[in-house]
Amino acid sequence: MQSFEATQVYNDPIAEKFLSSIIHSEEEAYESYRAYAHHVGFTVRKDHTTYWPNSKKLKVKDYICGKAGYKKEPNNTVKFRKADTRTGCKAMVRFHVDFEGNWKVAKFIENHNHPLADRGDKHLLRSNRRISGINADVLRSMTGSGIRATHAYNFIATEVGGVENLECTKRDAFNFIQRERRERIEQGDVNALIQLFMERQSGDSMFAWDFQTDESGRLTSIFWSDGLCRLDYDCFGDVIIFDTSYRLNKYNLCCAPFVGVNHHWQNVLFGVGFLSDETTESFMWLFKSFIRIMGDKHPITIFTDQDQAMARAIAECLPQTRHRLCQWHIYKKLPSKVHCGVRTKSVAGLFYKCLSKCDSEEEFEETWSLMIEFGELESNVWLDEMYRIRHKWSTAFNKDIFGMGILSTQRSESTNNVCHGVSKPTSSLTDCFIGLENIMKSWRRSEKDEDFKCGQSVRTPMVKINPMLRQASSFYTRKLYSMFEQELLNGLCGLTYEVSVESDAKYYVSKLDDEGTRQPWNVLVDKVTCEVTCSCKKFEMMGLLCSHALFVLSLAKIKVIPEKYFLLRWSINAKRDMYNRFGCKELKDSGCNNVSSSSLIFSSCSQKFAYKLINRAQGHELAEECLWETFRKLSGDIEDAIAGRTIELHKTKKKHKPRIIECNVNDPAKKRPKGVSTTRLKGHWERNKKAKRMEQEAASSRRAVDAFEQSLTDCLTQENYASQLSQTYSGLLMDSISETLY
What is the pLDDT of residues 387-431, one digit of tens each? Predict the structure, then answer.
């Protein structure tokens, strides 16, 4: 045993093991004594250090009990006093280190003057609390996936059989996560976010972003979109849902996602913006940035809520786009804007019909006039304003434009609901970006899962001998096929349909509703070209033939639906089919039949320059021919380079690291969300104290009222004062006391 100063014999085998251990460094000495302290039940602190003269080499190192010494009393009055844990404990160990670096125990005191920790409480000892590498990775991964820190801590505690078997507390886990987040934005939240954008761009050349600042250099607006978002916009950017009601971050910036619908009827994200305010200028900047990054391609329809600033910005920046308003928001305002007594329910029914149940503009005008007359609402200002912009919210005025049958911004609001799981009022912009990236990854994974299911299986038609269903099952995705099959069966099996034929090409289809009235639809069929049109305009609005048209096609003995009525955006291979128009078909015809749709897309559009060229040449025959001739020549040059028939450029080309740009953008000012009070939050005892005071005041008021009523009763019982008091002073006193008390 090594020599040491002691006054007792040590029978503890753990102490014997500690004293006999061979130590080579300061870290080993600390870990050895810490392990012994954990076994016994006390915490360890580092104490005095002595060095050899004229050297930085250790000579003496002391480690003491965490309760050694006494706490110094503060000279001034402080608001918060930490609990005193010092008891003047003498337990310690002293190591002597010779000049060659050999460690040995020179002094060891084992006795303590305080209770030691029990077995179930040893995980609370300060020197034994640490987060292992495995637990750190688990916490980092789970919180990065949107799981709350408390749930992540409970998970790792369950894995080891309880919190007493962990080397950290819940507070340690919270501090670790917060420290990780602070380190992530050490250079500033916005600067860290832009640096993250640059890293993404180094791996995705189509990643793009833009931002703007105010006069003081603070961020006011920012927008970003990655390569897959831009490719998705090329395929599914005909309809956009835009909503800015989500503000869950510590700067109170409104989150403005551009949401679309893919060929599986799933949400798809085209890009995300953050705005400090909702003014016309901010929206104009956002829409211009969005259109510029998306290659100057305007959507067909955009759905928003009823916001004047947003409407002005859309009219200025998207003049070719049909602006539609969310019907749900409009109908929700109706009870607060329209009051007509017992007729309110009937008026609400007529207004609802004006929203989405009128099949023509004439029917809308008749229903609107009936609603105004029945409710006597000629002077209602809100209804006058809604009538002025009726073309933005009523489906009767939008049957000629593609809108996929969407009536509200619910898809964007469901995106906000998903964002709520990855963002909090204290979240930084970097945290929001990473959370939105995770959402996009999960959505894309769902899309790939549906692509796999559609590629590995074919929907079995409900009527297998029907050629239209067989044709649709091989073209549409599973979701769209279900919708098409429902339309076809409604048409063929709708026993309440009545058809009157005026000529070989003109049919009138009517259906008896629940009240016995007929709703006519005018269907025109050209048997030579197989063209069909219906007055309900379902194909124009959604890209699917309606039940009326399918019913008439069957009557006209047309068994196969023309290809032009199968919209490419609803096909199983929507992306591949749509990019075939720009040359991907040549890749497929050259023998690449096993290449997936994603590979075909990236083989032609993964680089930013080629992507812009393809968009620029779209629709121009000569430009497309020139573009693909250049690509074919470039492909030949690349094959020659690979075969060694040209100069090997890779030997002389230097490998450049991603360029790091120094950013100096100030973070936005921190703001509280709307409706949140700026006063200090009160604690439990303060709230209870206020409640008790209010109860005492109420009891005092009740006692005063009871005393007055009793005195008034006593006076009225006396004949001499009854008439005078009741006629002259009774009313005045009652009013005065009521005002005083209440």
Answer: 999 999 999 999 989 998 888 777 665 555 555 555 666 677 888
State the residue for tokens 């096929």. Answer: 481
Average predicted confidence (pLDDT) for the chain: 77
Kindly state the tokens that stand for 90: 């003498």
Tokens at 459, concatenated: 């929907």
Q: What is the pLDDT of residues 491-510, one digit of tens each?
A: 877 635 556 665 566 666 66
Question: Domains in the chain: how many in total?
Answer: 7
For residue 544, give its domain range. Answer: 463-565
Across the range 92-118, mean pLDDT stands at 87
Residue 232 lies in a domain: yes
pLDDT tens digits, 17-50: 777 777 888 888 888 888 888 888 898 988 888 8
Strand partners, 108: 93
580 & 704 share domain = no
In this structure, the answer to whether residues 156 and 56 fall within a common structural domain is no
The pTM of this model reads 0.68
Mean pLDDT confidence for 649-673: 50
Q: Which of 371, 395, 419 is the last residue of a domain?
A: 395
Provide mean pLDDT across the span 581-587.
44
- 96: in domain: yes
**In contact, 235 and 569? CB cutoff 8 Å:** yes
Whether residue 367 sits in one domain with residue 333: yes
Helix 227-236 to helix 429-456 angle (10° resolution) is 50
Say which residues have a Cβ less than 8 Å from residue 710's Cβ, sequence separation at least 6.
none
Closest CA to 294 of 581, 597, 579, 612: 612
Which of 545, 565, 585 represents a domain boundary (last residue)? Answer: 565
**Spatial separation of the C-alpha atoms in residues 394 and 526, rounded to whole Å:** 30
Q: How far apart are CA 223 and CA 193, in angstroms?
A: 11
Q: What is the CA radius of gyration of the chain?
A: 38
Work out the percent of the chain whose per-residue pLDDT is above 70: 72
Confidence at residue 520, expressed as pLDDT on a 0 to 100 scale: 73
Same structural domain, 118 and 30:
yes
707, part of any domain: yes
> Both 331 and 368 in a single domain?
yes
- Find out whether 452 and 439 touch, Cβ atoms under 8 Å: no
* Element holding 630 (H helix, E strand): helix 621-642
pLDDT recorded at residue 604: 42
Distance CA 122, CA 125 (A): 6
Q: Exposed/middle/buried for 716, CB within 10 Å: 0-12, 13-18, 19+?
A: middle
Whether the CB-CB separation of 65 and 91 falls below 8 Å is answered with yes
Handedness of CA 243, 248, 250, 252 (dihedral sign): positive
- The alpha carbon of 448 is separated from its chain's Cα centroid by a whole number of angstroms, namely 20
| Secondary structure string (H, E, C) spanning 125-172 | CHHHCCCCHHHHHHHHHHHHCCCCHHHHHHHHHHHCCCHHHCCCCHHH
Cα–Cα dist 6/668, whole Å? 63
Give me the CATH number covering residue 250: 3.30.420.10
User: What is the spatial distance between Cα 591 and Cα 580, in angstroms, rounded to a whole number?
Assistant: 15
Beta-ladder partners of 104: 96
pLDDT category at 384 given cuts 50, 70, 90 is very high
303, 326 Cβ separation under 8 angstroms: yes
Do residues 249 and 271 both lie within one domain? yes
What is the helix (H) or strand (E) element at residue 709, kind and residue range?
A: helix 684-716
Which H or E run contains 308? helix 308-317
Regarding beta strands 301-304 and 322-325, do their DSSP bridges make them parallel or antiparallel, or are they unpaired?
parallel
Give the pLDDT confidence of 589-614 residue by residue, as tens digits.
Answer: 433 444 444 444 444 444 445 655 66
* CA dihedral for 348, 351, 355, 358, sign (positive or negative): positive
Q: Is residue 649 part of a domain?
A: no
Are 200 and 239 in a shared domain?
yes
Whether residue 430 sits in one domain with residue 285? yes
Residue 74 has pLDDT above 90, yes or no: no
Instruction: State the Cα torsion 301-304-310-312 to the nearest 10°.
Output: 40
